[in-house]
């Protein structure tokens, strides 16, 4: 048993003559790999014949050696990482039998991952019995204390995932999943707000766990960050669904209205339309949205305006021909050079609608 760490140390020295190898090794990789796998098999045998604290300590020493080997090897990182994972699994079984001091075990598991970012992933479920409540509490306390001070990656920034941050993130994700702790999951997610989709993730977790007010707050934060782009529509969908679930349809309409004013979009118009089209609220809201486009007068606003006209015509949502013609008159003022082609497009799509064509002719179109 005592000779196993020396065997591992010798086998981890890259031999002369190997591509990329370091001087000093006497064996080629196949022989050294055979020696390493033999150590792994021997540890599993000792788990049956000689379990106890001494074996746990021995395995921890060898896992650390292998983790160091993964970090320094240039040609055999994958094989060494897989072997380290197998030896760590043996360690988990040894701990389940021996029940080492849980706080010490928690510290070792955490240090292994933080000091060796390329170390094998630690599955907390494999250590559930050995860690016990005290060990898990220690593991969580230290992990959170290290993770909380990490800077938040702000909207539009590039993620700064150095090896230390990546190792901590991996620890926290596993801890949140194992404990099923929503606050831990939110802590992890809220450290990266580089895009609107990250805001959406946080809001979705809050919504799914019955924390509606917080979810809507994160939607508002996300919408301010994205400025109507990216995940904006998905954020709005979540807010609308949540307001409707809460029996607050007016708030759902208001979300669509404010988002439309911030960045006009046909989808937002249609969302608002679907919410109130069969109520007395729709005509004034529709007029307000269209008036905003006229006041804006920009290329995007005009394009949205044109698409709204076509949608309303296709759905026969506008029964008053005079109102539609008035919209066309406003479009002509906004886009005089392109209006003739657009009017021809409208006429060709509605060639069978004599009432519309007659009204257009009467109004000089």
Shape designation:
elongated
Q: Percent helix among the residues?
A: over 70%
Q: Quote the distance from N terminus to C terminus.
A: 96 Å
Radius of gyration: 32 Å
List the uncertain runs. 15-26
- Let me know the average pLDDT: 90
Protein name: Tetratricopeptide repeat-containing protein
Characterization of this structure:
This protein has 365 residues and is an all-alpha fold. Among the domains are: 217-294; 297-365, no CATH class. Helix content is 73%, strand content 0%. It is built from 18 helices and no strands. Helix 11 (232-245) packs antiparallel against helix 12 (249-262). The longest helix is centred in the first third of the chain and has 22 residues, at 77-98. The chain is elongated and about 100 Å long. The chain starts with a helix and ends with a helix. This is Tetratricopeptide repeat-containing protein. Residues 1-28 are annotated as: Disordered. Residues 18-27 have a biased composition (Gly residues).
Question: Short summary of the structure?
Answer:
Helices cover 73% and strands 0% of the residues. With 365 residues, it is mainly alpha-helical.
Features:
mainly alpha, Tetratricopeptide repeat-containing protein, 365 residues
SSE inventory with pairings:
Layout: H1 4-11, H2 29-49, H3 53-72, H4 77-98, H5 102-115, H6 128-147, H7 163-179, H8 182-189, H9 196-208, H10 212-226, H11 232-245, H12 249-262, H13 266-276, H14 282-296, H15 299-314, H16 321-334, H17 336-349, H18 354-362
Helix pairs in contact: 1-2, 1-3, 2-4, 3-4, 5-6, 5-7, 6-7, 7-8, 8-9, 9-10, 9-11, 10-11, 11-12, 12-13, 14-15, 15-16, 16-17
